From TrEMBL:
Its main location: membrane. This is MFS transporter. It comes from the Bacteria. InterPro entries: MFS, MFS_dom, MFS_trans_sf. Residues 1-565 form the Major facilitator superfamily (MFS) profile domain. Keywords: Membrane, Transmembrane, Transmembrane helix, Transport.
């Protein structure tokens, strides 16, 4: 059930690909100002990555199942806000909460696998989790396209809301049987409410009802002479500086106060605050600032013209300052976010480094394969170009399960290296693609080989990390693996795009002026083909760079996972050898 939740959250990462133009117009952003839509994407990424270490640490302290349930509740709440969004801040806030909830599912699920399976039997379950996550990335755009064919973009997030709540209820129903493996203490289970908190339920319903009125602003109420006064702002034209906005905030405060002081509230707010403090909230916020600076510097840039956004250097400067403050805090805190020595073993921190380069290579496939298709055979149709990537993504989960199976017999370093060398070979084959190659069956060789290669590398990296970290830090450790891969993706796409653009401009210099080639004609196929050749050269340069990143990941895996075996031994035996 947790794996299903991971797949669904992964689908939501890509579900906005086709819906983004409609989402922009739905919140009042003109379609010709695409740059203003960047926060819709970066808001999700920020929530997904920046809060992962904190959620992973909470999973270590509070237990896996409670964090899974809470993550799904946050995902559902973010989906609700996104569904009802009326302006850019509200839609970005909703996407941020979706990212926090969706990202929190990954470390909790990976840690749950480590709790439920001994080290020599984790490979296949870890491969399955990686596989369903990638299947979700395949289904995301297709799910969005299917919904948009019969409804508008808000229906996508309304479905997310319903599915998130159903999955949370299902996992919560299984909690008594899973609690023995989740890290929950007996006194925590005993403190659960045995009777419904009716006051809390009423306050929660009142909060949602009032909030819905603020978001939806029903025309019937607004036109009424009496009820319409609830929507008259005290100042400006904001929706919250109104009587109904004040009522909503007041009810929310009452709900939080009840959850804090009631003996058995609907939400154990006081308990969660204690866990946040114990998980090192200060350290988590400093790390979130550091990661947020990196994300904003790269995610808000236009990769076609710049590596960083216009304020990227300031974002990176803030990230460096926050990272330095985090390092200082970890050395002085009694219970830091990352327990001292948690990642001291070479395979543990090595997994983070390998994951970084895996992400740097993977992003080239996810972004530049569709771009290559648009440059060559599908210049005027985005959907077929995106479907070319599906061939790659379908092979990836197959490789993930195979990689999980192979580490039962082979070293994770060997399996990871073979996978990444296959990925590099796939990219090298892509550098041979021409104007019409994607229309030929031979193109599938590169896509399948590359997808299988990346899949092979996913489970071994996670398995090596989990085998060389203690049980009580599995949540935060796996969170850092995901963070490393995501940061690698962001930095990788900027660096590789810069390399590609240099090649493009070099090729463009030898293209004759349009007047010479077209001889005054308004349309000139020859000139267009020359520009397409320059675009192909750009993508080839990106593929070569991605192949280099994949080779680096393979070499690092062989060196840093040298001698690591997770078959036929227990976790304690693996750790004792190092």
């Amino acid at each position: 059930m947790a794996a299903v939740a991971v797949a669904f959250a992964a689908a939501d990462t890509y579900v906005v690909v086709l819906a983004l133009p409609d989402m922009m117009t739905g919140v009042g952003v003109p379609i010709d100002q695409l740059q203003r839509a960047a926060p819709i994407v970066s808001g999700f990424l920020l929530g997904y990555v920046a809060m992962l270490p904190l959620i992973g640490r909470i999973a270590d302290l509070r237990g896996r199942v409670p964090v899974l349930v809470m993550s799904l509740v946050l995902f559902a709440l973010g989906s609700l806000i996104t569904t009802l969004a009326y302006d850019m801040p509200s839609i970005v806030g909703g996407r941020f909460l979706q990212g926090v909830g969706g990202g929190g599912l990954v470390p909790a699920t990976l840690a749950l696998v480590a709790d439920l399976y001994p080290v020599d039997r984790r490979g296949i379950p870890l491969g399955v989790v990686s596989a369903v996550q990638e299947i979700g990335s395949v289904l995301g755009p297709l799910f969005g396209a299917a919904v948009l064919a019969v409804s508008d973009w808000r229906a996508i997030f309304a479905i997310n809301l319903a599915v998130g709540l159903v999955l949370a209820a299902a996992i919560r129903a299984l909690a008594p049987r899973a609690s023995a493996s989740t890290g929950e203490e007996p006194e925590q289970r005993a403190s659960r409410p045995r009777v419904p908190d009716l006051v809390g339920v009423l306050l929660l319903l009142a909060t949602f009802a009032a909030g819905a009125i603020v978001f939806l602003r029903p025309s019937g109420l607004m036109r009424d002479l009496t009820w319409g006064q609830l929507f008259i702002p005290y100042a400006g034209d904001g929706r919250w500086l109104t009587p109904i906005g004040t009522i909503t905030v007041a009810v929310l405060v009452l709900l939080l106060a009840w959850c804090w002081f009631a003996p058995r509230p609907l939400l154990d707010l006081r308990g969660w605050v204690r866990v946040l403090v114990e998980a090192d909230l200060v350290g988590a916020l400093l790390l979130a600032l550091a990661l947020g600076g990196v994300i904003l510097a790269f995610a808000t840039a236009d990769p076609k013209i710049e590596v960083f956004s216009p304020r990227g250097r300031w974002y990176l400067l803030g990230a460096v300052v926050a990272a330095a403050a985090f390092a200082w805090h970890v050395r002085r805190a009694a219970n830091p976010l990352v327990p001292r020595g948690a990642l001291r073993r070479t395979p543990a921190w090595g997994a983070l480094l390998v994951s970084f380069f895996v992400g740097a290579a993977l992003i080239a496939a996810l972004i530049d394969i569709p771009l290559f298709a648009r440059t060559t055979v599908y210049p005027d149709d985005q959907l077929p170009a995106a479907l070319v990537l599906v061939r790659f993504l379908l092979a990836l989960p197959v490789g993930a399960v195979a990689g999980g199976y192979l580490i039962r017999f082979l070293s994770p370093g060997v399996v990871t290296a073979v996978g990444m060398l296959m990925a590099a070979a796939g990219f090298v084959l892509m550098t041979r693609w021409g104007l019409t190659t994607l229309e030929e069956p031979i193109a599938n060789v590169a896509l399948v080989v590359g997808g299988l290669g990346f899949g092979l590398a996913l489970a071994p990296v996670n398995a090596a990390l989990l085998a060389f970290t203690d049980d009580d830090v599995h949540g935060v450790a796996t969170a850092f693996v995901v963070v490393s891969r995501m940061v690698g993706m962001l930095i990788g796409i900027s660096a590789l795009t810069t390399i590609g653009l240099r090649r493009y401009y070099a090729e463009q210099k030898v293209v004759p002026p349009v007047q010479e080639v077209c001889d005054g004609r308004s349309r000139c196929k020859e000139f267009s083909d020359l520009l397409r050749v320059a675009g192909i050269a750009q993508e080839h340069a990106v593929f070569w760079g991605a192949a280099g990143c994949a080779v680096v990941a393979a070499v690092l895996a062989l060196v840093l996972f040298r001698g690591v075996r997770v078959d036929r031994v227990s976790t304690r035996e693996v750790i004792s050898t190092h």
